[in-house]
Amino acid sequence: TTFAIKISKDVIGNFKTFCKEHGIKYSFFIEEAIKEKLKEEELKEDILDLKYHN
Fold it and tell me: Which GO BP terms, alphabetically (predicted)?
């Protein structure tokens, strides 16, 4: 599946440089970053639910 978004030139430049220097494929890096961010956001929601519903 292809997914297109607009990202600032600075962020793209840093991203491409990082991936090239570390031998990481763009798609792998992005997919893992999205998974990690989703888990982080779900954890934040869980913490807020516990805080305000107990």
Answer: regulation of DNA-templated transcription
- Examine residue 14 and state whether it is found in any structural domain, yes or no: yes
Tell whether 32 is covered by a domain. yes
Q: Are 26 and 19 in contact (CB under 8 A)?
A: yes
CA distances from 54 to 14, 20, 48, 50, 51 (A): 43, 47, 10, 6, 6
Does any domain span residue 1? no
Q: Rounded to whole angstroms, how far apart are CA atoms 40 and 46?
A: 10
pLDDT in tens, 8-24: 999 999 999 999 999 99
